[in-house]
Design a protein that fits this description.
The complex is a heterodimer.
Chain A: E1 3-9, H1 12-23, E2 29-36, H2 40-53, E3 59-64, H3 71-78, E4 87-92, H4 96-101, H5 104-111, H6 128-137, H7 142-148, H8 162-172, H9 176-179, H10 184-194
Parallel strand pairs in A: 1-2, 1-3, 3-4
Helix pairs in contact in A: 1-8
Chain B: E1 2-11, E2 14-20, E3 24-28, H1 35-49, H2 55-61, H3 65-68, E4 78-86, E5 89-100, E6 108-117, E7 120-125, H4 128-132, H5 152-159, E8 162-164, H6 168-173, H7 176-181, H8 192-198, H9 201-218, E9 222-229, E10 235-241, E11 249-252, H10 258-271, E12 277-280, H11 288-291, H12 294-304, E13 312-315, H13 319-322, E14 332-336, E15 343-346, H14 351-358, H15 363-367
Parallel strand pairs in B: 3-13, 3-14, 8-12, 12-13
Antiparallel strand pairs in B: 1-2, 1-4, 4-5, 5-6, 6-7, 9-10, 10-11, 14-15
Helix pairs in contact in B: 1-5, 9-10
Classes of the chains: A alpha/beta, B alpha/beta.
Chain lengths: 200, 384
Amino acid sequence: MSIAISLAAEGSLDEQVLRQLVAQSGRPFAPGVCYGKRGRDDLRLNVPRFNLAARYKPFVILADLEADPCAPGLLSAWLPTGKHPNLVLRVAVRMVESWLLADRAAFASFIGVSKDLVPLQPDELANAKLQVVQIARRSRNRNTKLDLVPAVGSTGQVGKNYGGRLAEFVQTHWQVERARRNSPSLERALAALQSFRPAA
Amino acid sequence: MRISHVELNSWKNFRKVEVDLPDRVFLVGPNASGKSNFLDALRFLRDLAAPGGGLQRAVLERGGVSKIRCLAARQDPVGIKVHLAEGNRTEWRYEIKFRQQTRGNRLPVLIKEAVWHKNKLILERPNSDDLADEPRLTQTALEQINLNVAFREMTQFFERIAYLHLVPQLIRSRGDLGGNLGVSSEVYGNNFLERLAKTNDKTLNARLRRIREALTIAVPQLKELSLKRDERGVPHLIGDYEHWRPRAAKQNEEQFSDGTLRLIGLLWSLQEGEGPLLLEEPELSLHSSIVRRLPGLIHRIQRARNRQVRQVLISTHSVELLNNPEIGGEEILMLLPSQEGTQVKVAATVPEIRQLMEAGMSAAEAVIPHTEPEDIHQLELFKL
């Protein structure tokens, strides 16, 4: 029997990561819509509403820790009145890009760089987005570089098809089973999904 | 009076749907889910009842019965049923069912036509006259003055259904493109300026004045707006644009921006007529600060005249338009494609959405995610 769930995430890339995580969890979840995708502040504002709606449908939510000190702190700040048992809120430390970097060999080969350039402990990075861009600067593939690295003089933090290119990686190469070994926050998120038993 | 209930059978994307409609309706759904086709079912009733209309023409303009019936239910007859209500009281019910003749000219023929006033059945076809003279079944009672005396009020209501999907290029070209596309008269605005020119001066000036007042806020450079005929008698919209020179420059509709033309068309349509107004994507070409205000503006105009509420049905893709706490889940119809044709759901009937909106989420946040195509993320894998 599949378990229908709703999702929520900060952006489109986060949504793709969450969908893969759910799909690769080995549990019979049937994810439906993904709410949010309008940034972190918006997600934070809406989490208490998802918590109420979790009465009707289980929710799985992915947020970035960003500069917050720790994930349990984020949970109690975002849901001060307590979490409904049908809601799972998982936090990527500190950005979802860390979870992509955690699949080291696959990420390196997708970008076209040596595996040694990909950090061993991506959860320790203060800004994994910046790290992805730095790695992409060394890419042997011109198109990958153009997609991920901002143009000289641009005020953009990332390249013009950053989200699209990484979403392609997530959908076609990223393996949770490999990545979890390098990212404790991903390991905990996977464990939480594997033990999630929402009440009908 | 408003259209309070619609049932469609084998109508384009819809195999079988049944839904209640409030005074203001927002239709949301992915591309090609049938938003325009839903509105077209109501336009079809208008086309049956309008002078010069009728079943044969209304079907022909849509490419024949084979283009109307639902691909998921080819064998079923095409059917439309509506209830018209005053407040909570159902005044009229109308039902039509038709199919294509299996032989001969393959004309559309009625299988059923029925009218109820309050709860009384006052017309039911085919009747004995129809059975004695089958060609009668190629015409509805709506289109025949001598047959529709008993329900003239309902027929006139259908006639007043108005549709707006302004295409600025067509206003500028005065329908030159539209004629070739075979689109029917007022659709797409190809005779928009002629419609303005036919309005009596007093009404015309009053409406243009209100439009100008709104436009001077939205398009501050525009100082004056009037309708003038050129030497050949062709009507033109003339605007005075202010710039750094001392005298304002006159421009006509050919030089207006798409946004200005669409806003003029929208404001005009909201003031014209009293029957249900069907608006197709009113957000197009408009700045988000205007789009955000459209629901409130439409609401004001709905109540502006005669204490009668004018029903408005709006198809939209706009997050800006729906990101509005004043829009209720009961006003939103979600069109969700499936193997069995498009399903229509009132957003407020989905418990999860209802809860999210009651907790303060806007329609945009709570509903639009439900209308995303399931495999939309594969667009990122598309190889160029």
